[in-house]
Design goal:
Elements: H1 23-27, E1 41-47, H2 62-75, E2 85-89, H3 95-110, E3 120-126, E4 129-133, E5 148-152, E6 166-167, H4 168-178, E7 185-191, E8 199-200, E9 234-238, E10 248-251, E11 254-257, H5 258-269, H6 278-291, E12 302-305, E13 324-329, E14 332-338, E15 351-355, E16 370-377, E17 382-390, E18 393-396, E19 405-412, E20 420-427, E21 434-437, H7 446-449, E22 463-465, E23 474-479, E24 482-487, E25 491-492, E26 520-521, H8 525-555, E27 562-574, E28 577-585, E29 607-610, E30 614-621, E31 629-636, E32 642-646, E33 655-657, E34 662-669, E35 683-692, H9 730-737, E36 760-770, H10 773-778
Parallel strand pairs: 1-2, 1-3, 3-7, 7-9, 20-22, 20-23, 29-36
Antiparallel strand pairs: 4-5, 5-6, 8-25, 9-12, 10-11, 13-14, 13-19, 14-17, 15-16, 15-19, 16-17, 17-18, 20-21, 23-24, 24-26, 27-28, 27-30, 30-34, 31-32, 31-33, 31-35, 35-36
Amino acid sequence: MRTNNRMMSYWSSVIFTGILFLVAVSSCFAQNDTENTNPPKFALLIGVGNYQSEEITDLDGCRNDVEALHDVLVTRFGFDSDRDIITLIDEQATALAIRQAMQTLVQKIKALPEDSPASQVIFHYSGHGSQVYDQLEGPLADEPEDGLDETLVPYDAVVQGSETDIRDDELNQFAQSICADNRTRLWIILDSCHSGTAARGTTKVRRLDRQLKPVPSSQHQTVQKSETTLPQNAVALYACLSHQQEPEYPDGGKTFGLLSRFLVQVLNEKQSVSKLSYEMLVDEIISRYRLDHKTMAAPTPRVEGNLRSIVCGADRETDIPQYWITLADGNRKDQVILRAGSLHGLSVGSLYLLYERPEQIFDQSAEPLSWLKVVEVAGTTARAEVLQRFDEEFDSFRLPASFEQGFAVEQYHHYGDYKTCLQLEFVETDSGNIVAVSAEDSRVPESLRELFNTSSESETNWLRPASQGESGDLILRIDGHYAALFPITGFNDENQSQPQYRTSIPSTLRGGWGDAGEPFDLRTPLKTLPQINQCLRRITRARNLIRISEENRSRQNNTPAVRLQLDRLAVEISDGQAEIVGRSPWNSTSDLSQPTSDDVDRTTSPLIVQEDDYYDWSIISEESGTSPYYITILQIDANMGIQTMLPWQRGDQAKLIYPGETLQIGGFQLVSETGEDARTVFGPRWTILLATREENYFSMLEQDSLPNLRSSGINPLSSHKVKNNSPSSLAEILLQETYFVTRGDRPLFQQKTKQYDTSWTVDIVQWIAMPQKKRISQE
């Protein structure tokens, strides 16, 4: 399948436990073949984590990926585990076995009666992706642009590449055969990646890099090109773009693919799957990336094909009510167990009402048994404490001794703790192994323990150490006298030119964050501790700003009152003067020089701005009232720097926009800075629009100087009165979560959370700044 995406994708999740309200759905799958009138369903699930060749790096989560997807297909989408699903894991997934299984699916489709309902087929691969040189003759020859075919790497592959690899051309031929009847729906899921740029992070990347060089077009031989587009009824989902890599994701003591972890969460959590299109699915996944602590700069999943078709052909029978089964926690009546967890969207601090029967949820006169507050979340289960409400206060409560089972419905969703959780790692001198250690471990220098003493009279405690077995948000890795910060999940540098470390610096620290391109030197703690602290502040501030923006956008159902739009500019230059002669919404990803049609969604199709391109921003008010908003636009780069785009001068008053008005700011040109002080401009960026009814000075969130509120003397944000309760304005939220200003203890929860607070609104656009293709090939 020839696309601008490399074959990649990374699948994961955990087991979706049986839920009572799905019994009615699953009972229909128990019918025999003659009675079953449901559309035929078939799946081929392949996971290769342990390879035969010792030269190929093994992967951690491929089996988990397959098992999780298998469970979702059975419990949610009605696949029969024995009849409909072929599973090949590790040594079962040889090249021959994979090809035979693909042919088996083709034959099953061909054998269906002509009057059979349209069938659904899923092909899923989890493992390494790679490349081999294109075939110059035969049915699979297609003359790709770079002379290379992308491949899936089976169990018995060899590191240098051979015909054992499953080529993208074979997958395309498989898709054409499956969809030959023009009725069968095909969903291809590729949980792998291939060559990209330097990745940094602590989890593995599913790529087997064979160091193949692109073949110049002048050396291509003329061949009969095969069909390289997807059939009309096919959809392909990739974990990331061609220049990115897909990392693994630690969760609940297991490792999963980043995409798969959040894919399965969406499929488990969404109540109306029958209304979930593939483009909406990717939008949901991207939104969860932004809200998660561990995915500060996640790769961008990509979908191609029939984007507006419904995921897995789901019908209304797959939809589920908005409640979770709740069980007694042994003999304890002050706590309960919910049969849903992080993979279903549950989070610590969220609040539920507990009912005895599900029909009571929809009965306005029915009294709930109690309130529940989630206190602990695992992959598929959660524990909640039982509470009773008196006016605005909540106290501990005990359920009746006879309580065994109930049904919980969410009343308030808590997006999680804004504190940064720092995990410490130590590189053992003798073995070179990297082990997680606690802050109290004797190998951790005493000076580093002072990092966690961040609370004071003027600051909240914004940093905490990871507990035993917990996956943090960031890692501080110590090797001898040096240390460096890493994201917990792999991070893509998007062709950024990183400063080179000295050769004397341990290789275990390369690719991490340090000071001025060098790791932190622990031999000078008085100098180093402030450096680490400021680096952690930069990351935490930028991460929380992204989360605040995405949370509010989610509460507005992704339809903010004032929205932000990236525009492509057509510019003519005459006598050294640039004139804008055209403007259009920026929708292009596959072709970096031409925009695509307007029906491409900006979140499912990530925006790519290439070096030397011209662009600007449109601010569009969707309101019909009379009150204006004050507008500030901030931009976050891949290294967590925050820049003010509007207003132009730091400290200036925000610009006003009135209902129905559209403003343009720019234009801009993406250029590379030069010189010793030049900043890297390439990589992921987040442009954030903050709009408030009252005057704001959010430009002070810039991180160029990392202002210290206790010594700077003036803080424009402090003009907003800060109350000792839950944040009620954007200014209060930003004070606590990005400047860490003490606001006292928060109450147990807010009495009622509106869909969004009309006194402020937020929009966020993620895009990618890319160097020119010529430059990429030279690096």
